Amino acid sequence: MKEHKRYMVTSALPYANGPVHIGHLAGVYVPADIYVRYLRLRGREVVFVGGSDEHGVPITIKARNEGVSPKEIVDHYHSLIKESFERFGISFDIYSRTTSAIHHRTASEFFRTLYDKGCFVEKESDQYYDEEARQFLADRYIRGTCPHCGNEQAYGDQCEQCGTSLNATDLINPRSVLSDSVPVMRTTKHWYLPLENYESFLKKWILDDHREWKTNVYGQCKSWLDLGLQSRAVTRDLDWGIPVPVEGAKGKVLYVWFDAPIGYISNTRELLPDTWQDYWKSDDSCLVHFIGKDNIVFHCIIFPAMLKAEGSYILPHNVPANEFLNLENDKISTSNNWAVWLHEYLDDFPGHEDTLRYVLTANAPETKDNNFTWKDFQDRNNNELVAIYGNFVNRAMILTHKYFGGTVPEGGEPTDLDRSTLSEIGAIRKKVENAIENYRFREALKEAMSLARLGNKYLADAEPWKIIETDRDRVCTVLNTALQLAANMSLLFEPFLPFSSATLKNMLRLPAIAWERIGSGDLLPAGHQLDKATLLFEKVDDNAIEKQLQRLAAAKSAKAAQKRQTYQAAPAKDEVSFDAFSAMDIRACTILEAEKVPKTDKLMKLLVDTGIDKRTVVSGIAQHFTPEELLGKQVSVLVNLAPRPMKGIVSQGMLLLAEDADGKLVFVVPEHTVTNGATIK
Prior knowledge:
Layout (H helix, E strand, L loop, with lengths): L5 E6 L10 H20 L3 E8 L4 H10 L3 H19 L5 E4 L3 H16 L4 E10 L4 E2 L5 E4 L8 E2 L16 E5 L7 E10 L5 H10 L6 H13 L4 E2 L1 E3 L14 E3 L1 H16 L4 H5 L4 E6 L5 H15 L14 E3 L2 E2 L10 H7 L4 H10 L7 E3 L1 H31 L11 H22 L3 H22 L1 H4 L4 H21 L5 H11 L33 H25 L11 H5 L3 E11 L7 E6 L4 E6 L7 H4 L3 E5 L5 E3 L2 E3 L2 E2 L1 E3 L5 E3 L14
Parallel strand pairs: 1-2, 1-13, 2-3, 14-16
Antiparallel strand pairs: 4-5, 4-9, 6-7, 6-8, 9-10, 11-12, 14-15, 17-18, 17-20, 18-19, 20-23, 21-22, 24-25
């Protein structure tokens, strides 16, 4: 790892429209905290910046739904999120917010600098306008029918059923979420950042100069750059946000994607009003962004283009983005309450902060989406933290108190077992360092745990309890060695498990010791008095786990009941002629092959036997069915639908399904199996 004079570490700003959940922790905040704690232990000059993202449409929607102001929403959730992070030990140097006065000033100055340099392009465009609400509509304020899958509740930016990205003008029969009226098109003016002007710079900077970035980050950036960049609006028509600081911009605010990353700068400025530029504008500073995969483009392409346009800022050294964490084999959904909320976890499991940190690091979605289950949580706590790490420390402490009154005994002549055990500490430390410095935190934790396993094996091989009556000198050496291992563990585990490391240091009465001394066999001198032994970790019982599973089951049941209660049949569509209906060729077909479409959550690629031919059909059903349960199933397919490309695959038909009130999809099929190609009339 190249040493820099100072480090500027940022973590994604969570939207202040809801609490933080374990997906956020695993993807961003736990790895960022591990990295920062490690840098501090190495004596590096580092600032760790976080804060709440308090502008944008999701917040205005939340406020509208709850009948309160956006300010009330962000005040509530900012406080909740900040307190949760503090209780969980995320060691921010500052956790601020984008509604602060200093952020408004910093973002406005940033915009104005680019504006004065002529970096923006002014464009007029036609956008949807709600005449009843008297305002232009953001994409999320428009719903209509998806032109790709027919979902009648698609948003203006994305269809959540088939996963296709949309423009609001793509929707069929669009309606305003605000008034349920049909919006009209009106002309509005906005300022755009012409990303295409920075394409050659970005290609060299990322594709040539940062090949060491994580594969998922580098690959997503390359895909965007290969497609070619386009101008992106930096302002929008909205009444919640930072006013655009130029004439003729009444009723317009900075787009949240432009405003939010500047929050890293304004928060640093708030923390260090006199020296903040040292971290953001000095070539000997290292800027690292910790984010989830949904923010890769913003932090690797758009924000660097903004910084390059401004001209005085350094660019990110690395952006070690993680993939997503699922919960009990389902995608985390805040709207469905399918999540483990941090503040609830802290209340339900007091004293188990490190357990969650451990499990989320061990299951970190570093290279692909990963899964959290409560059973795995329990197993890792009981079988690893308690039975391995905690067991070793407890045995070493208890035996020392039992045989030597809690005083570190003076070791005698070491054996090969003693020497080989102590010699492994330094090698393990180097592996941990290498993994952390290359953002492989899961691997780093695994290596650290190997030291705990080594300690258990050492005591099991030495068996001091068997020889205390016959070879007390040998027991002195064994327990001295075991305590040196425990002292080294208290240092090595500190980036990962800060609470238990602090407890262990207190038990050992260990003074402040530099990270570089990890590997030493004399951290605790002979005659040093230990404190009383306490348990580092406690078991999690079945009742605690069952309570969490019941909470999730209740959330799923409540959502299903809500859907059934509020379900209303869709209004009848415009009548069609008999000839138009007769023109539809619907046939019974059998699914021969099925596979999920890569890099999508909802699309399934099917090969169906239509009785006429075998053809490919792409359908947004991947979250409802597995490929295995589809094989051999007879279904109804509209076979004369015009071919449509979807994610690079040409779909030649559409499956017929009914959607129940709880969102469950059911195939429309003949009562009995019929010959493939049989027409449905």
